[in-house]
Specification:
This protein has 256 residues and is α+β, with helices and mostly antiparallel strands. It has a single domain (2-255), classed as Deoxyribonuclease I, Chain A. It is built from eight helices and 14 strands. The chain has helices at 15-25, 44-49, 116-137, 160-163, 171-182, 188-192, 208-211, 224-227, and strands at residues 2-7, 29-33, 52-57, 65-70, 75-79, 92-97, 100-106, 142-147, 186-187, 201-202, 214-215, 218-222, 230-235, 251-255. Helix 3 (116-137) packs parallel to helix 5 (171-182). The N and C termini lie close together (6 Å). Residues 232-247 have a biased composition (Basic and acidic residues).
Length: 256
Amino acid sequence: MRIATFNINGIKARLPRLIEWLEETQPDVACLQEIKTSDETFPEKDIAAAGYGAIWHGQKGFNGVAILARGQMPVEIARGLEGEAEDEHSRYLEADVDGIRVASIYLPNGNPQPGPKFDYKLRWMHRLRLRAAQIWAEEVPAVLAGDYNVIPQDRDTFSVKAMETDALMQPESRAAYRRLLGDGWTDALASRHPQGGVWTYWDYQANSWPRDAGFRIDHLLLSPAAADRLKDAQVDKDHRGREKASDHAPAWVELG
């Protein structure tokens, strides 16, 4: 079973690239982030024509997450995270597909830091950890997939110096991510590529893609029951280089 995460950076603008990727790689589950569309304007018919059922948590113009399942409809479990009633951002969606609990996550960027946006990022990560603990307690195979906006280690960026003041690489961001791993979640890509140097994001600016000046911020965290079934974890890097592509590449895990 292949479960993928893909920050699409605008589902309507990237729809041809999304359909192309779905047809070429045929993931069983695709967790999308930054769909940047309202619930009413989500391209459900196009997704269905590609063979996927979908649920989504939209927001006009920015944010927004979705879960697609090949040949079936994901069974929604939760949308949004508890703990901050005034938070209206569409950043979390959770569903069951074929006995696997999957979550599509778009964690706040947090820039500029320090400041209110960074504080919000850290609060959001704490709320995610609380929800992850609830999922853990259910003892189900689970994959928490998405754009975490965290560079976990120095080996996960092309340049530590270039990113050292960015919210993605602050000690507090890394510590919050590390606490998730400490709770027993497995970073699938890191487990398959311990040497690092695997990127999932390349900025549109500064010739980043041709220079391969990227970093890893899209992660798939596995519960023990899912980690026991891990066969592979990779990045569909070539999709970043296609015409009018997202600035992220899809990442995925294969579970046996």
